Amino acid sequence: QHQVEDDATGWVMPYKKVYHPYLCRFMEFQYGFSVEFNKNSTFTRQELLDIRPNDIKRWMGLCAYNDPDYNINPPVNHRPKFCRASNLASVKKALSFFMPHRNVPWCNNQGNPTRSAPVNDIIKEVKKFEVRGEGCPSHAKRAVRPNEFRKAMELL
């Protein structure tokens, strides 16, 4: 019901209920918040192919710093107080799901833009601020118990 065939190529936009809201919000950002998308919104292959790494980086900047054109250097000194690196990783994963070339690394303006250096760099940058205590505080409900930590370490 959610999949609509793109006229030109027969390509069908994939659909995953948990990821779709991320894509809709990102596309609203792409269109300058002049349109609103909902659970039935689909996007053409070309709309998705037109997404560039800098678009995703700016979106993540808005999510983390509340400014798509953030600047972490003086005199501005923005800090990622609005979301954590794990949130940005979720955004990256969700957007990647919808990319027509999702398995292809970003190279020469082709492939999956979520697999590009600028996108990975902002996630690393936010993680560094968290470690320094300058990022968004954790919203964990409770501390990890020792046995949970051991199990997690065994999985690595």
Care to describe what's here?
This protein is mostly helical and 156 residues long. The protein contains six helices and no strands. It has helices at residues 20-30, 45-49, 53-65, 85-98, 117-131, 146-155. The longest helix is centred in the last third of the chain and has 15 residues, at 117-131. The radius of gyration is 18 Å and the shape is globular. The model has no long low-confidence stretch (mean pLDDT 91).
Which features does this protein show?
6 helices; mainly alpha; 156 residues
| Average pLDDT rating | 91
Number of strands: 0
Order of helices and strands: HHHHHH
Strand content range: under 5%
Cα shape: globular
Distance from N terminus to C terminus (CA atoms, Å) equals 39 Å
Helix content bin: 40-55%
Rg computed from alpha carbons, rounded to a whole number of angstroms: 18 Å
Uncertain residue ranges: none
In short:
Helices cover 44% and strands 0% of the residues.
